[in-house]
Amino acid sequence: MKKFFIVVLACLSLNVQAQTENPVTDAAPETTVIRFGYLSYDAALKAMPGYAVASQQIDNLRKAYEAELKRAEEDFNQKYEAFLEGQKDFPKTILLKRQTELQQLMKQNVEFKQQGRIDLARAEEEALAPLRTRLNEALATLAERYGFALIINTDGNACPFIDPKMGQDIQEEVQLLMNE
User: Fold this and answer.
1) Which H/E stretch holds residue 36?
2) 36 forms bridges with which residues in the sheet?
3) 50 closest CA partner among 133, 126, 130
């Protein structure tokens, strides 16, 4: 977010500087117009062909992890219930052994859950990487075609107001370009 505002401020300062610089002659100051485009990157990504397939693959992987987590949780609960039922009858060494087993099982389940989150995030990144590359290439093409200095991602309410006289909404152009 900071980088975005730095870029915008730099562009605006160049624009102001170009407007205020007045050469020795009496000529009017030269005006540089900074053109930019804007769109919702997430909406453009989700509208791309191939997004549904990648999303389905990620959902299938997520469901597999959730099923394994549920199975592991049920297994832990059964062992814990058996431990609680028999703890008053167990000799001290067996009691300590079972406590240790339950602690190790809980630790393994927590580690599996954490690793699952990491694996899901990595799988999502890998599945969407080709789509993001294509979208970024399309944005570069449109920036060159329309002479944009930059393209602004409006996701997350990063830009609550954009003057339509100064910027151009390129959402439809991106979708058309991606469907060619």
Assistant:
1) strand 36-39
2) 150, 167
3) 130
What's the distance, CA 144 to chain centroid?
25
Residue 17: closest CA among 5, 34, 2: 34
Query: Which tokens go with 133?
Result: 């590359």
Nearest residue to 72 (alpha-carbon basis) of 98, 102, 43: 102
Same domain as 153, residue 124: yes
Statement to judge: residues 60 and 143 lie in one domain: yes
Assign 96 to helix, strand or coil.
helix
Q: Are residues 84 and 163 in the same domain?
A: yes
Domain that holds residue 26: 1-31
pLDDT tens-digit profile of 80-130?
999 999 888 989 999 999 999 999 999 999 999 999 999 999 999 999 999
* pLDDT score recorded for residue 164: 86
